[in-house]
Write a structure and sequence with these properties.
The protein is α+β, with helices and mostly antiparallel strands. The protein has five helices and 18 strands. The protein is globular and about 90 Å long.
């Protein structure tokens, strides 16, 4: 008959009890550290950056080499994607974001906010350069509307705004609406480029490009021909203030894909931007 094991055989040695104790301590320590471990990375965060349109599209990639500042708003913030100079924004109010041309867009007008950025190196207004951005009306009445600024300097010597229309009690136009590109102050004098916006439909995106190589100043829509004017004199150093992007008042407009370049863009480059980024045509159900 087999004999049961003795109590001595069942008793663990001091060395084995110490090893088990250390294993238990390590297990408890590992469990306590679990909340500190990084969360699983989403598929979007691990996406190959080379799939971004500005990289994948050869023409856009070459054009972006001339960019000094870029705001896509896709993170739901006013932090730029690219900045040649200091980039920290100073918020004015609370900017709001809505679905845009690509990802999110900034809401200009209404109760949304804006942001101020240091201009030095981000926007080469003192010499030559270009501004490209997309605009989409949301709640334009085309009858009575205040002005809505999209990009301007803190001293109002350079800006792009939509001038809202005004009518009197008899329905007569007292102020025409239009998209205005302005350079102001002495010694340049006040120069205004105008695009008619009376036919701009709510929900329709448009690309705007503004060029400057002083005294030359020009504006284009959807990659078309540039309308040009000349300032009275070349702006002196320090003529332009810092940048403000967005508006705290006016009729609601979406602003997306804001880009500054350190040289003017050609019509072909404006067309390239338009064709590469324009939204697909809306399908009409028969």
């Amino acid at each position: 008959m087999d004999r049961p094991p003795s109590r001595v055989a069942l008793r663990a040695s001091p060395a084995s009890r110490e090893a088990v104790g250390w294993r238990l301590i390590c297990l408890l320590l590992a469990l306590s550290l679990l909340p500190l471990l990084p969360a699983p990375v989403s598929a979007a965060e691990t996406a190959d950056p080379r799939t971004d349109l500005y990289f994948a599209h050869e023409g856009l990639r070459r054009l972006l080499e001339w960019a000094t500042f870029k705001l896509s708003f896709d993170g739901g913030s006013m932090i730029p994607d690219l900045a040649a100079g200091d980039w920290q924004p100073r918020l004015l109010g609370e900017p709001k974001f809505l679905p845009g041309l690509r990802g999110l867009a900034l809401l200009a007008g209404g109760e949304s906010g804006s942001a101020i950025y240091p201009r030095d190196r981000n926007a080469t207004l003192d010499t030559q350069g270009a501004l490209a951005l997309w605009l989409c009306p949301l709640e334009w009445t085309h009858y009575q509307g205040p002005n809505t600024e999209y990009v301007m300097t803190t001293n109002a010597t350079f800006y792009l705004e939509r001038q809202g229309p005004m009518h009197n009690e008899e329905g007569q136009v007292t102020r025409h609406e239009g998209l205005l590109g302005l350079v102001r102050g002495e010694p340049t004098a006040n120069v205004t480029l105008v695009l008619d916006t009376s036919k701009w439909a709510n929900g329709e995106w448009r690309l705007i490009v503004m060029n400057w190589a002083w005294p030359g100043f020009s504006i284009s829509q959807n990659g078309g021909e540039f309308a040009s004017l000349a300032t009275k004199a070349v702006p002196p150093p320090g003529h332009f203030g810092d940048l403000i992007i967005g508006s705290r008042g006016g009729e609601k407009t979406l602003v997306d894909e804001v880009l500054f370049f350190r040289r003017p863009l050609s019509r072909e480059e404006g067309r390239l931007l338009y064709e590469a980024l324009k939204p697909p045509p809306t399908e009409v159900t028969p």
